[in-house]
């Protein structure tokens, strides 16, 4: 049963990433870091947060941290954009846009390459620190695309506030 759930989760992870990426086109560097008046977020923070969250949900919670992870997502990047982090306005207060985009893509590729081969036995292990939405490794993987779609909606709203049309 878990294999079918894992395959469904992988399909949803791919769908949510494709859905998110449609909102990341035709943006200037300034638009990536634009913060609407009265708010604290911007598209670059949303994307960096998605990279950190996907790493946490699909790699860290499933197999723990590896030294080689720093090549995919440096520890300081992860700490700056993980759950509970606060967006910092301005290009100057964030990593370069190309770094954010590279990490976003690298984490996603690593997740897809690692989770496909997980067994039911590996995935049905309860987490040491359960989340209110899930208790097992498989639950963390299944939650990842749901979380991404929430942030895709925020990215879409930021685009709308910039006066950009909905992308589809």
UniProtKB/TrEMBL annotation:
It comes from Bythopirellula polymerisocia. InterPro entries: DinB-like (IPR024775), DinB/YfiT-like (IPR034660). This is DinB superfamily protein. It holds the Pfam family DinB_2. Residues 14-155 form the DinB-like domain.
């Amino acid at each position: 049963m878990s294999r079918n759930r894992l395959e469904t989760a992988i399909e949803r992870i791919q769908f949510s990433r494709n859905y998110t990426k449609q909102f990341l086109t035709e943006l200037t560097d300034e638009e990536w870091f634009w913060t609407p008046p009265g708010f604290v977020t911007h598209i670059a923070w949303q994307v960096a947060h998605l990279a950190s969250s996907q790493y946490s949900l699909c790699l860290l919670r499933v197999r723990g941290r590896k030294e080689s992870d720093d090549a995919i997502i440096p520890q300081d990047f992860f700490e700056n954009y993980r759950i509970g982090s606060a967006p910092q306005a301005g290009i100057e207060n964030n990593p370069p846009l190309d770094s954010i985009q590279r990490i976003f893509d690298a984490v996603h590729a690593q997740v897809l390459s690692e989770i496909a081969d997980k067994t039911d036995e590996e995935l049905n292990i309860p987490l040491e620190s359960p989340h209110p939405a899930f208790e097992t490794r498989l639950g963390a993987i299944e939650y990842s695309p749901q979380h991404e779609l929430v942030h895709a909606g925020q990215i879409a709203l930021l685009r709308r506030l910039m006066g950009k049309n909905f992308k589809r």
